[in-house]
Write a structure and sequence with these properties.
heterotrimer; A alpha/beta (262); B alpha/beta (502); C alpha/beta (219); B: 502 residues; Rossmann fold; 2 domains; four-stranded mixed β-sheet; 13 strands; C: 219 residues; alpha/beta; five-stranded parallel β-sheet
Amino acid sequence: MRVALFTTCLAEALAPRALKATVLVLEHCGVAVEMPTAQTCCGQPMLSNGLPADAARLARRMSEIFAPYDAVVTPSGSCCSVVREKYAGLFAEGSRDRAAVEALAAKTFELVEFLETKLGIDPATLRAKTCSRASTATPPATTTTAPLNCHDACHLRGIHRHGCTAPFLKAAGCGDVRDLPDMAQCCGFGGMFSTQFPEVSTALGEEKLAHVASTGASTLVASDTGCAAHLAGLAHRKNVALRVISPAEALAESLGLMEIPA
Amino acid sequence: MNELIAPALPFDMKPRAREAVRDLKLQQFVGNATHLKDTQRGGIFGRDFGPDYDDLRTVARDTKQYALDHLDELLERFIANAEQSGAKVHAATTGREACDIALDIARAHAAKSCVKSKSMVTEEIGLLPAFEAAGIKTLETDLGEFILQIDGDAPSHIVTPMIHKDRVATAKSFVRELGARYTEDPTELTMIAREHMRGLYRAADIGVSGANFLLADEGSAVICTNEGNFDLSVGGPPVHIVFVGIEKLIRGARDLAPFLKLLARSGTAQPLTVYTSFVRGPRRAGEHGGPKEVHFVLVDAGRVGVLASEKRDLLRCIRCGACLNACPVYRKVGGHAYGSMYAGPIGAVLTPELERAQGTASPGQPAAGLTNYPDLPRASSLCGACYEACPVKIDIPKFLLHDRVRLRAQGLSPKSEARVLALWRWLAERPALFRLAIGAVRLHARMLGRKDGDGERAWLSRAPGPGAGWTQSRDLGIATGESFRDWFASREPRPKKPGGSQ
Amino acid sequence: MTARNTAVAALLARVRDAVRAQPVTVRDVPSHAVVRRVSRDTTNLADLFATKATAVGMRVTRVDAAENDAGVDAALATLIAKHAKGDAKVVVAVRDANLAACAATAAGDRLAPNDNDDLLFDCEVGITDVDCAIAESGSLVISTNGRIRNAWITPPIHIAIVRADQILPDLVDLFELRPDAIDAASTTVITGPSKTADIEGVLVTGVHGPAAVEIVLVG
């Protein structure tokens, strides 16, 4: 199986560590990852903002770039859902482009989803896995991970993965995973919504941060780069000490594949 | 009509949204009530339908869609059967026509007073101001609507109209308008309203209501309430007028059960509303009580246009309010921010569509609708909670996206935004340049950002260009260390696979 | 043609065009089997009905079928004594002649004349029987067929007499098995006492309709 990493432009700019973690976790599970260098942006910003023709051009690119692979994995829940749910609607039924993006949709996965449903990995056995690639890291015997919450990207609803991250991380032994009250409510990011209705977006983000604070968690795992940037940016502006990471980083750290920064 | 739900057009949502977010009481009331109802909705469906809930929604979706796809047949059957039962059926193309029909009926009976049961369509057509202008004193009998009426306020939620209002405001308006003694106790306030209204029920010349469903096979209307105000409104006066949008039709009682089971659970987490009332024509020979005349006013007011459009699905809406309760934006801005009696996600798509279909634009203007409500399609984070909550599976996010395309096409979204997105797309088709651009962003952050926190990122508090909106209320953290691509390329080559790229 | 008929015909014509403007996506109404989910366990309908009716805030007095009219008389008399104070009047809107006689006996001097619906506002208690009842939701189905309209809405207390053999398992059954129940000028399916939560979400009963619904369940 040839597996490609769908990096997403936002993660390349804002969260390269999430991408590194994705590679390390996949390799830990015996999956060698390739990274097509021509990939750029999936077109979500255009698609969500009334420019479907522009989005279609990028969708077509994506389907060509990832054509040689059997699976496409990304740490970004929202970008994943765009490929899965929205691409087909950009092209006429029966067209070649439509078939191409449908084929892409059928093999594109969010990381945790890929591990759980495509590889069929029982999270409880993750720590016992041996890395296919030379790695000196051994999973720490006892976890020292700080208390954490999971906030799933709303777009995971569309691919029926909303609320699946926390149970997976819990079962994988990612330390003290605490239930986030009202996890189902959007964090207020919403792409350009965050600048079109900044007060509403901020108010929702602050509510999310308050929920996190109520659990005593010092780390928030957000399954989308945009949500993570929004919440981390809010916390930073308000001098709230909160580490915002991706599920890939939470897994990589708990498996000893990555150092937890001091 | 009340400016809160019938504002000057084009409507600017943003100031109202800003104001709402700062209104701590509104945040508390609307936030608490919507969260509670949303949680209870999940609970009752889980308890009563478990994994079958989704199938139930599918059944309801298809049953209602069938009705819309065959609305002409159903309408014909309804009219024949209703007339057979002795009701009179009227048709109104516009809200004004609907009001005029009612005024004619009222005039024929020299009506001076009216008791009215809660109805969205009568809000939509402006019946109350029309009646008041004609000297017909009209009483809103739903408790919430009554309190809003005497306080000059307007409903802000489809099901719980005074969700934004508290007991203190209620107490004050009861003292001022009803001469009641001051009390903040909800039970006492309710009883004051009850006593005030009972005499008015007895004396009313005319009763008015909406309807939740029309049954084609039976020629009946179905009205759901919890208070019993509909039954009192229809039971006393000699004339009753039911105003109803044509999209309320279903085949008949044989198709009603899924909707009744979904409606109350979705709206208020009850198995059924307390009263589900069937009206099948005027009182019959030998019966005691009930109207001697029943009129159905079938209202178009844009619905026929929506039926003909690619947004036909919107007419499936059964006005349960679940999408409002589930919507993060509604929870923060409340109903009045939407500038329509239809607030929240469904309102954001339905309001412009009804407006467009009625073609109320001035001559020479582009089609109304989005022109008058340019903010509504954008007032959503596209989180999908509304679609998930909808008992008839209306894909609201899909229609919001559809409207965002129209906004662009009509030149109603900011040009600067379009320019940035076009540049972004242009770069994205040129990978080398795209990487340079990402590199430039990272360089900018490295040079000007503050390095603190975990040391991984540099933080910008004032980003240039398109990032400026972002940093109004949040910092922008950009990773400045080794890029992912450099890291990936620098790793020891893994065992070669046949045909592997890189 | 009257103006009214012309307008109705015009609406029909426009709807016909509008329907044709989009493809038909649903050609047949799907099976409603899943709708029954709630009432899958229907081994004892009277018990299920009593449980559900209580859950929605109605009170249930069980009368053994063997006690016959005497049992109903006694139950009604107790409930009337509980709710009707002073010179409070009781209106009887019972279609079943036998039960009507029981109700009239139990009401005694309090019985209001049953031919004048204006009196409803002056009555404290309304006694009705039902067309049928629904177990899964604990609902009463009452039509105007043979009953003073709103005798079950206007007085502050509603007493409903339900025979166990009138209980249907599910709401679906009302429409499938008892179409006559909704073939009256008006029929109301009642699921609890009148309630509102309009003021700050605080639940208050008896806002317009009865604050208490007492069910005498026979059998």
